Amino acid sequence: VIRPEPCGVCGSRIRFGKTAVKCCQCQLLLHTKCREQCPSLCVPRPHHHAWPREGVLADFAPSTPPLVPTLVVQCVTEVETRGLTETGLYRVPGAEQLVREWKRKLLRAGGALPALSSVTDIHVVCGVLKDFLRGLKEPLVTFSLHPAFLRAADIPDDAASDTALRHVVSKLPPANRDTLAFLMLHLFRVSQSPDCKMDVLNLSRVFGPTLVGHSSANPTPLAIMEDTPRQCKVVARLLSLPPSFWRGFVGTEQENLVPI
Q: Which residues fall within 8 angstroms of residue 70, CB to CB, at 6 or more apart?
């Protein structure tokens, strides 16, 4: 076990480094000692009708491009429809209980999502999007490419830094790359709204830990302290890349994703 998870039989957490048993059909995870109590029949997880409670981004992405999860598209659409006049968008927290409830609803629904128009507070929708991205098994920039993103953002020369970042972005798994492009175009629009008062610096502080994260699932306290300012720098540099670069990944299909 790399990332501690609860046992599907007894419910207690299986700790880091311990050996566990996992069903290749339904993905049930359990302690080796709980194997005898495991139900003999399992139900394979459906591929298109429900999402896992947690997973990597590709687990939530559609099968055709652009590979942006429906949950992300729906949250962004709702924010752009009625949130671009809200001060402190993404910085002001939504009610925690409502954020958890709506995230659970959307994850249970899978592909056919309930309408977010019934959520009165747009900050709750922002909270659902951030919580979904934070809850992934690895950050959007992935564990393996995390050091490369940090190095590219640290290059003092702006042009050289941009070139390095473009190269690293192109190495991302397709779903991560498309979703990052989709989010960057969205955050660029948020930064351009005078009512939101959320410039690139503010947005990078909010989304640095969410999108960039750390290079492992269990970072040391020292790594957390060292990574935080560099995470913000990565997002600020990504937001400085021209929208035309990001549109190259989501293309004209983006007009089908979010109303202009």
A: 60, 62, 111, 113
Q: Which CATH number fits domain 57-250: 3.10.180.10, 1.10.555.10, 3.30.280.10, 3.60.70.12?
A: 1.10.555.10
- Residue ranges per domain, the chain? 1-45, 57-250
Give the global pTM.
0.78
Q: Is 232 exposed, middle or buried (0-12, 13-18, 19+ CB in 10 A)?
A: buried
Residues sharing a CB contact under 8 Å with residue 227, sequence separation 6 or more, in sequence order? 150, 212, 213, 214, 215, 219
- Which residues, 6 or more positions from 231, have their beta carbon under 8 angstroms from its beta carbon? 208, 209, 211, 212, 213
CATH topology of domain 1-45: Wheat Germ Agglutinin (Isolectin 2); domain 1 (3.30.60)
What is the pLDDT tens value at each position of the chain, 260 positions in all? 776 777 877 778 888 788 888 876 667 778 888 888 776 666 544 444 456 667 899 999 998 899 999 999 999 999 999 999 999 999 999 999 999 999 998 888 876 778 898 999 999 999 999 999 999 999 999 999 999 999 999 999 999 999 999 999 999 999 999 999 999 999 999 999 999 999 999 999 999 999 999 999 888 889 889 999 999 999 999 999 999 999 999 975 444 454 43
Instruction: Give the number of other CB atoms < 10 A from CB of residue 250.
Output: 24
Rg (CA), the chain: 19
